[in-house]
Amino acid sequence: MGSYGQYCPVSRSAEILGDRWTIHIVRDLLLGSDRFNELIRGNPGLSRALLTRRLRQLQAVGVVEHQDDGTYRLTEAGLDLQPVVFGLATWGARWTFGEPADNELDPDLLLWWLHRRMDPTNIPGPRFVVYVPLTDHPNRYWIVVEQEASLCLADPGFEIDVTLRTDRTALYRTYLGHASLTDAQRDGAIDVEGSRASVRAFFEAFRQSPVATIVSAESSSKLH
Questions:
Q1: 50-54, 97-101, 136-140: which range is least confident on average?
Q2: Among 21, 68, 149, 195, which has the minimal tally of Cβ within 10 Å of its Cβ?
Q3: CB–CB of 50/19 below 8 Å?
Q4: What's the pTM value of the predicted model, to 2 decimals?
Q5: 61 vs 12, 27, 95, 136, 151, CA distance in Å?
Q6: Are β-strands 128-133 and 162-166 bridged in parallel, bridged antiparallel, or unpaired?
Q7: Are 180 and 174 in contact (CB under 8 A)?
Q8: Which of 60, 54, 23 is closest to 36 using CA atoms?
Q9: 223 pLDDT band (50/70/90 cuts)?
Q10: Is 52 strand, coil or helix?
Q11: Of 125, 141, 122, 146, nearest to 205 (Cα)?
Q12: Pairwise CA distance, residues 32 & 47, whole Å
């Protein structure tokens, strides 16, 4: 992005952050993605060439550092963008976040987000497998939780502990905080099948989006 030619801190910030995909890259770095391929997986539509260019731009202005181990880390200036990014989330949840359009319901992206948020702390046994057959899309997913969670797009051949059966809209809305997992199951929007112990373990491991508390608070305020 070229210079606005204005000696103004808003203009200077917009020159750094206003390019397409830049805020998404900063968002994902804030949320723990630190490798090039993770940033690609978390942003369908972002080409590898454009990501390379954006990362170089952010490095040049001191927002991102490229580490010797190949990871990307936010600098102090980059970390200081957290209230900016979550401020955008608050504004968006309040003023622009209605029902999703069909082209926003990418199941690959949703399951990528969801599996990265799974908490393996209280998962029983060496391996825990969640099978996700979507009722409105042909894709099938397997989340394999060991020391950390991995996402499989083909059957890994392991015994399934929990089946999470739902449609894309219901799962997006639950992940993003419009409803809790408990409420979604109670209302029939999501069906969680498995033994009582496995279902309980899944509920403990499932974590909503980092912006879910913002979305939930704004959704509640609109009801009052």
A1: 97-101
A2: 68
A3: no
A4: 0.93
A5: 11, 17, 31, 44, 34
A6: parallel
A7: yes
A8: 54
A9: low
A10: helix
A11: 122
A12: 20
Tracing tokens 């809305």 back to the chain, one arrives at 173
Q: Which of 55-59, 66-70, 95-99 has the lowest mean pLDDT?
A: 95-99
Q: What percent of the chain has pLDDT over 90?
A: 92
Q: Note the residue count of the chain.
A: 224
The pLDDT value recorded for residue 125 is 82
Give per-residue pLDDT as tens, 202-218.
999 999 999 999 999 99
Tokens of 147: 């020391």
- Could you tell me the domains of the chain? 9-80 (1.10.10.10), 102-215 (3.30.1050.10)
CB 26 within 8 A of CB 74: yes
